Amino acid sequence: MDDHTQECAVHVAIESPQPGIMVVRPQGTLDMHSVPAFHPILEAAVQRAERGLIVALADITCMDSAGLAVLIEGLKWSRGRALPYVLTHVTPAVQRVLELARLEHLFPIAPSVEEAERQCTRPVHAAPRAAGGDSESVVNEWAAMCFSSRHGS
Prior knowledge:
alpha/beta, Transcription Regulator spoIIAA, 6-stranded mixed β-sheet, 6 helices, globular
């Protein structure tokens, strides 16, 4: 393992404050270097969650389009399972990326994990499959664009 691989390791804390609710807390940067390690962790958390997934972003210092893409992918996976997916503690660095991409309204955002837990008790339905203009289309377009450019170039 070379030095570059070691620097790209992502640190993630995972907890379950209530049965069926998973809280994922990535730390440091969420970028093209750390996302390959974070992607399977987030996917596994979505699969383990039974009542909702919370992504607490308080410890994210920097995020790029790859970080945004993995958050969108998590939203897509959660919607496929009709699970609530809530971001909390959105830092200025994350908020800036969401706003630049004009996706700040795509994600449910709560000010705290406790509020996100309350949102996870509300019923959620799988995303509609309408053609164009809906949030599912935005999710699919962003995920396809970001992941294809990262893996295809």
